[in-house]
Please model this.
Amino acid sequence: MGLRLHNTLTKRVEELVTREAGKAAIYVCGPTVYDVTHLGHMRAAVVFDVLRRYLEFRGYQVMHVQNVTDVEDKIIARAQAEGVPTDAITVRYLEDYRQASRALNVMPPHVEPHASQHIPEMIEMIKKLVEGGYAYDAEGDVYFDVSRLPQYGKLSGQLPGELRAGARVEPGEHKRHPADFAVWKHAKPGEPNWDSPWGRGRPGWHIECSAMSLKYLGMGFDIHGGGDDLIFPHHENEIAQSEAYAATQPFARYWVHNAMVMVRGEKMSKSLHNYIAVADALGRFPADVIRYALAAVHYRKPMEVDEARLQDAAKAVDRLRIALASAETILARAGSRSTDGPASRLLRKAAESARTAFTAAMDDDLNTSSGLAAVFELAAEMNRVTDQVLKGGTDATETTPGLREAREALRTITAILGLRLDSAADEDLARRVRDLAVSLRQEAAQLFSEQPGQTLDEIVAFILAGREQARAKRDFATADRIRTRMAEAGILVDDLPTGPKWRIATDGRRPTADASGPRA
Model:
């Protein structure tokens, strides 16, 4: 069997059978750009980034579409509060979202449609709904008539007869039924608006995603994703208007929803003022740590974010980084010499077991938490073997074939989770260590006669070589100062009988902002 995903529409975990064999078409509801990006937004981004990466790993050709909502009530309210045009708000906060996504290694979508650039498609869709009797004009507002669709509520279980205005249903004095929703809103002073057959106005939120997903993916695309707070009314209404418009089903084959990020038992949100901005979190933790924390919990389980969880994630990432860094050290020591000794064979077996267990876990509804258990078993075996080599108990050459295979397995698996782990990927850390190398060369030219390299591994090796010269001259005070300054830069050094062993500090970088908790 292949990948199985929980389908909110059927309430079951089902095998993924795509519209076209070997291809997967995904639409994810993207950001409404009116404020800073917080960890709650990034959970959805990370979840569907992992899904995309895993589909590609399994051989699918993925088409990933994610919209930008740049026409919406909250954006208008923010612009009016600041006294600026709406596009000043959307440009500012879209860039904030993109910066957060880049920092957390979220791949950009193949297509990123903006609502404001697809008004003609929305108007055409609304016209057809009105012509078919599924929508009606009410004093310049156009509403979708939910009574015309007997299957309305099939995604969320919310039935029209049980809904009333105000209970997650927008009010409207000209509605025929409280559950009817706006697909077009008449123009109000100071709001962006466009010409339409019903007068000047702007689209409703729900019609935006329907029009854009159908334009780029067509009816019956494979996966529609988003947070579970969008199931009703947004996704329910998308289904209703899209299936009425196309006169066929399904709008999307699989509906995949991630649970929310929580703070002290409440959903992280701007309205509750309990959010942690991504920029603030990045001031205290490396991107890999935040990414790990967001990916480690199964996507359908609510995720509580606090200092303890992020510290635990930092320790977990450190274990993985140490496994890779130690492997690189041993492989460099062995050079071209290679023997498939007992340790090597154990590592090859561990690598194969990890690949098998990780794939089985991910096939089971993207069970990242179980998949990570396999990752850490592999990392533990790698660390056990490399420690034996560093302590002189095993010859480096007897580990190399298996160690290379284990290293590649660990890199492949963690890349699916979006973790970079390559120490050179942390540009801030690399910059600090490079600055330290330049400073040390100026201060102690007799110890640092060569030029430092380019990668973090090369720069650290350069500093350690100079430190070893100081130790050889019994200048232990200088050696200790160098080690202290390396620790301040984020690199910890352990002096072992076989030579120094370095690792990235657990926190990965020095604090630059106060992100100890959610904003008040």
Notes: The longest strand covers residues 221-227. The chain has a mean pLDDT of 91. Residues 308-421 form one domain. The chain has three domains: 4-129+204-296, 308-421, 425-504.
